[in-house]
Write a structure and sequence with these properties.
It is an enzyme of class 5 (isomerase). GO terms for molecular function: protein disulfide isomerase activity. The chain is an alpha/beta fold and 491 residues long. Helix content is 33%, strand content 19%. It folds into four domains: 86 residues, Glutaredoxin, CATH 3.40.30; 102 residues, 3-Layer(aba) Sandwich (Glutaredoxin); 107 residues, Glutaredoxin, CATH 3.40.30; 105 residues, 3-Layer(aba) Sandwich (Glutaredoxin). A five-stranded mixed sheet has the order 5-7-6-8-9, with no helix packed on it. Strands 10-12-11-13-14 form a five-stranded mixed sheet, sandwiched between helices.
Amino acid sequence: MRLPTTSLLALLPLLSGVLAASDVVDLTADNFQNEVAGCGHCKNLAPQYEEAATTLKEKGIKLAKVDCTENQDLCGEYDVQGYPTLKVFRNGVPTDYSGPRKAEGIVSYMNKQQLPAVSDVTPGNHDDFTKTDKVVVIAYGDAKHPVPESFAKYANSARDQFVFGQVVGDNLPKLPGNPKLPAIVLYKSFDEGHNVLEHKNIKKITEEDLGDFVAANSVPLFAELGPDNFATYAESGKKLALLFADPADAEPREKIIEGLKDTARELRDKVNFVWIDGVKFGEYGKQLGVATDKLPAFAVQDLTEMLKYVQSGDATVDSIKKHVAGVISGDIKPTVKSEPVPESQDGPVYKLVANSWEDLFGDKEKDVFVEFYAPWCGHCQRLAPIWESLGEKYKPDNVVIAQMDATENDIPAEAPFKVQGFPTLKFKPAGSDEFLDYNGDRSLESLTEFVESNRKSAASNTSASDAAAEEDDDELPAATEEDDEVAHDEL
């Protein structure tokens, strides 16, 4: 069955404002077109989109594009907010496109859209169907051994990612390994070419079991990691074994990959092995703590727990095997990136680094209010003088106002939280192991009120600013009841 001509992939590039690193471009009638045309993501997508359109045209699938600078009402009707936005129309009903943005990925995604969730496959077209996409999952059964109902349910939920089919009847094609019916086989265009599902009782297999089987076998043993497939690995829940290599120096990379394939196969239910361009994505390596100036280099990353295990020394087949085994067994502890511990803490704000975490939070007699920031974060930059003033207000005192550069220091694994954005403000009361979130406005008054409402320690000394305030109070005449009422009304 082919999609009706109303089904199309629409490219809707609209840019209502162009955001640079440090300033916002003001759009006018004179510069609007030029600024919009400068959308980098749209330019990168355009040739891939054109190539996919040519391929899909032969299959009756149309790709179209809309210039939102000329058709603002139309784009508004479909709630276009991202740039570019891609939507799939099936029988006139739009859904968001969630596939890759390379030509091959667009073609694969749209081919799946024209198929039912589960295609009925015959012995005559079976071999061709197994090559429909990079990953094709087929269930086999007959009258006595029906295909489990969970197969169709899982296929419907995963139809955008994979191609599904079923062969039912007495005349079945020869199956790899000659499994008993019902049987489920995953065919793929890489590695060993197929995987047969092994299960105690396939008749009662669950959607979750099917998902685990497909997830474990639908990625190559040792693929190249890039923007197009990163989400696949991130969503797998498995640790990621990263070989950083120079793409121009293929021999050492391929030698390591070949030497690790058996290990990758043995551990595929726990670890995904990939190699990554250590030159192009060197900054990513540096964020992990990998020395990308000396390639190849290796690290294991746990994207679920936000931990990393960086291998020191040369990356060889033997050293990588030993490192991965140590990570899995727990013998190798997570790598913690830290700036040097400051020699002194004379300023109003305590400079927290990863290696001084226990020194600060291990002191149960003090309240701690800490800001996790990034130097490039505009909100953090605006908060900086206010945070400094807050530090001055509470120094010396039993309340410590601290800050950590979260781009140069890791949050230790034992911390009961992860930093997801900047700035993140956390308050740990004295004598407690709990970290309280601060979500109020970032004025000095509000921050002070929050501290006073949550602190558990008693003030040890009077700060210079409070002392000055007390001296000023001594010079004022005593307030009358009328004065108190006026002051209260003005608050």
